[in-house]
Write a structure and sequence with these properties.
There is one protein chain. By secondary structure, the chain is mainly α. It contains 13 helices and no strands. The two termini are 20 Å apart.
Length: 252
């Protein structure tokens, strides 16, 4: 490519809408993080949660990037909601003492088990055959906390955010906003089928929080650094623990 054509290509790239530039970066950085081999991380319950949450967050990043690029960012509210929640949970875990984290994630598992048992009961009450193995769930060994506050934080994200020393209010606000558009709410109905001036139904779409993905990029960076901190605390060698952050920073 000639110098003139190269300059033109760079100029056109810089002139692209900000949401497309950021969406492309979100895709590249997410793929870089997901390609990191963490197979040598030793298994603890905390490590399993940390790595699992991180991978889930960056898979959501890929979906959000694709929908944004396709002009469908307004449909990505459920994915953004999951992304914000995963980041908030990692911050919650990082805020507590290392010795308390294993019991905290076990408390989350215990809440999940209780939810599945309740789901089984609802299905049976409705006359629907349930495939949930309640016996196996109850036999699963867990060291759940008996502390009332920890139990509440494990099942209630708002309480987990309140208990986290780092002020994550901006991320929490994004989570709340996207929650509105991720459920069958009246607000959602009104956005997709608004009233027109002559009292008939018009068309529309929900608003997009973080329209240009600026906050998404910052929170993604926060996620990989938080993951590195948590894994190092679990005794994972520093080079391995920080590999996701290194991959994120090196993404083209």
């Amino acid at each position: 490519m000639s110098g003139r054509r190269s300059k033109k290509a760079r100029r056109q790239y810089r002139q692209r809408p900000r949401h497309l530039v950021n969406a492309a970066y979100v895709m590249r950085s997410a793929e870089a993080v997901l390609n990191v081999d963490l197979g040598e991380v030793h298994l603890t319950r905390t490590n399993q949660f940390v790595v699992g949450w991180m991978r889930a967050a960056f898979e959501q990043s890929i979906v959000i990037s694709k929908l944004t690029t396709a002009g469908l960012a307004h449909t990505a509210a459920p994915n953004r909601r999951a992304f914000w929640e995963l980041a908030l949970r990692l911050l919650w875990l990082a805020d507590m003492p290392q010795a308390a984290r294993e019991q905290a994630v076990d408390t989350m598992l215990a809440h999940g088990v209780a939810t599945e048992v309740t789901t089984d009961k609802h299905m049976q009450d409705m006359g629907v055959k349930s495939s949930i193995d309640v016996g196996a769930l109850r036999d699963f060994a867990l060291d759940a906390s008996t502390d009332r506050e920890v139990k509440e934080q494990a099942k209630n994200l708002t309480e987990a955010v309140r208990a986290t020393e780092l002020n994550a209010g901006v991320i929490y606000r994004m989570w709340r906003s996207d929650s509105t558009w991720a459920h069958a709410t009246g607000f959602l109905a009104g956005q997709y089928a608004p009233a027109s001036e002559d009292d008939t139904i018009s068309t529309g779409t929900p608003p997009v929080v973080d329209e240009n993905l600026d906050l998404h990029r910052l929170v993604a960076m926060l996620v990989v650094f938080t993951v590195g901190f948590l894994l190092r605390d679990e005794g994972v060698p520093s080079d391995l623990a920080t590999a996701p952050a290194t991959a994120f920073a090196a993404a083209p």
